[in-house]
Batch of 3 targets.
Target 1
Amino acid sequence: MNAIDLAEATHGPNDSGPFYHGTRAHLQAGNLLVPGNASVFEEATTHTFVTASLDAARRHAEFSAGEGRGRIYRVEPTGPVEDHPHLSDEGLSGNQARSYRTREPIRVLDEVRGWQTHCTEVRGFDPSFDFMTDQPARTRQDPDSVSPKLRSLHQVLWTKRLNSGVLFAPTMPPNRGDGYLIFTDASGARHWYGSDAITNSYTRWLRPKALVDAIAGLDEKQRARYLDPPYTIGSAMIWPVRSKDRPTINQARGTRPRIADRMDLTLECIRRHYAGEPQSPLADVLSAYGDFFALFDGFREFVDFFFFQDLVTPDHNEVLFFLPFDNFKRPGTPATTEEYVTYREATLEFIAKRGQRIAKWLEDNDTDNDGE
C-alpha cells in the first residue's frame, strides 16, 4: 500500500504527498524510522515527523540535533498519520504547513539530492542592499510589509537554536494576511512577529521643535548623508505583536519621547528588564511581552541572538549609547545640529557593523548539501 492509499485507508490527512523527512542521520533506502529519534520539532518518544512540504523538511534537516550535514529523505508512512498540532496552521483553512506526525515507523524510499539550505538562498547577500528597492513599483510602500526579500531573510536569520535547546523557528504563513512570521512553541501556542526598522533619521518628524531646528541646521552634504537613508538589514528587527497587548514594543519605542525610536535606549530598557530593574520608559510593555524575553537565557543571549554586540560593552554589562545618557531624564531626540550629527554618525556605524555581523553569520552557516 502506498502512502496515498494508506492515508485514505486510515482516515488520516487527505494529502497526496510525496512525503519527506529531514534529519542529520545517514540513512539507506528501506530503513525504518521509529518514534524515539526525534528532531527538535517533535515529541521525543511518541511520534515521528513527516511533511509534504520540501521547505519544512529542509528546516528539519538544517536544525535537527546530531552531527553531520542535514539530509532530506523521501519517505512513506507505514501507519496512520495525523495533522501535527504544533506545526499545522491552526485557525487557517486546513493544514497549509502540510506537516504531519505518526506513531508508526516511516520507511525511507530515497534521499533528495541537490536541495539548498535557507542560507544558500542568501549566499553572497549584500548587507548594503536597500529593501526600499525590493519592489520599486510600489513607491513609498513600507518594506516591512511588502518586501519579500526582507521577510525571507528574517526567517533565515532568526531560525536558530536557543541556549535552552529550543529551536526558535518562525514560519511565513502562505497567506500574508495571516501574519508576517509565526513561531509555534512546544505547547502548540502560536506567537506572531512583525518587522520594523530599529534606527530613525527623523527625516519626517515634525516635533519636537528642537529636533526640527537641529535638522534644519544641516548643510547640503550632511542632509544627503543623513536624511532619507536606505533601509538595510543592519537596521531591521522583528518584535512580537498581539492584539491584547497594546501598545506593542515597537509602537511604544516609537511613540514614547524618552525612547524616540532609538535602539540604544530600547536596549537599555531590555537590559533593565533582565536585571530586574523596574524603572524604564518601556517597563510596562516589556513586562507584557515577558514571554518573548523569557525565550532567551538573559540579556547576553538576547544581544547575541539579534546581533546587538556593537551596542554593548564586551562583558555585555552596559549599553553603549549614541548620545550621552542621562538616565532617561530628557527626550531621546537630538536637540542641536551637533547632537544630530553625532547621533547619525553613531547609528550609521552601528547599522554597518551589525550588517557585517549578519553577513558573516550567513556565510558561516552556509553549508554544502551536495557532497558526502
Target 2
Amino acid sequence: MQQLNDSIILRLLETTTNPTSLSHASRRFHSLWTLSSARSNWLLRQNQDPTTALQSACTKHRDDGTVANLLARFTFTPHWLAHCLLDVCMLPAPTASYPSQPSSTTLPPSVVRALLAAAPDLEADMSLYLRAQLFGGPGSASSKIEIGWLLNEAYRAPYIQCGVAALFFASWRGHVDAVVALLDHVPAVGPRLDASALDHVALVVAARDGKADVVEVLLRHGASAKARDGLARKVASRGGYADVVKLLDDWAAAPFVSN
C-alpha cells in the first residue's frame, strides 16, 4: 500500500477534532492490513473479480500472503494460472542502482511456489500471448527485445510452453529462487520442466547477462555448457563475465557431467 505523504498526514491532524482517536484508528488499520484476508478483500473490491485480483496480487503488489489467500478461496483455471506465472517471472528484479526501491519490487519465491502448487498448465501454448505482448503490450523496450528473441529461438518448436517461457524470463531477470522453484517442481500431470528445454535458451540468456548464480542452477539441473557449440560461453565472454566463463569451462571439462 502506498505510503501517505507527511503533508497529507499533517493536514489530517490539523483538521481532526480528536487526534487521539485518529491515532488509534490508524494503528487499528495498520493491524488489520497485516492480515492477508483483509488485503485480499481490498483487492477484490478494487478489481471486482478474483482473476484480476490474483493477477494484481502477483504482479503489482507481489504479495505472497494475498496470493495464497486468493488461491485457497477461489478456483482458477490452469490456463489463467499459467498466465499469472509467466507474468510474475517477467517482472524486473531490483537493481543496485535503486537501493531505496520498496519491498514490492522484489519477487518473493513463495509467490512462484504458490502458483506452481495450484497446478498451472505448464504446457499451455504462450506463443500468441507473447506476440500480443511484443506488438501491443505495455512492457518495456528491453522486455519486448527478450520476447522477440525467445520467439525467434523457438521457431523450430511447434509452440512455446508456459514452463519454458517462465524459466527463460526468470533466468533473464535473475530470479534465481524462481528458477529453482520451476526446476524443482514435479507436476501431478505432465512432464517435469527440463533446464535444457528449447535448446538451452535460459542458460544462454543468463550467461549473456552475467548471472552466475542462475547459470550454476541451470547447469546443476541438466543444462549443457556445450550446447549449441558453447554459445553460452561465447556470449558470456563477449560480455566480459569471467566468472561465468570459468563456471561454464569447469562444467564442460568435468568428467562426471553429461554434456
Target 3
Amino acid sequence: MKRILNRWSISRIVRLVIGVSIIILAIQMKMLMIGILGSMVLIQAIINSTCCDNGACDVKERK
C-alpha cells in the first residue's frame, strides 16, 4: 500500500493521465486492444513500476 501512496512524481502523474486518457478513448472507439494498452500504462502508474524497473535497462560499467 505504501508503494501506491508514496512518491508521486511528475512522470508518474503523466503516466496516470495518459493511461486514463487511452482507456477513455478505447471505450469511445470500442477497441479492446487499445483499452488493454491503456490499462497496462495505468497499472504501471498506480504501482509505480516501469519497463526498466527490474534493472534490465541498466548499463554495465566498464572495468
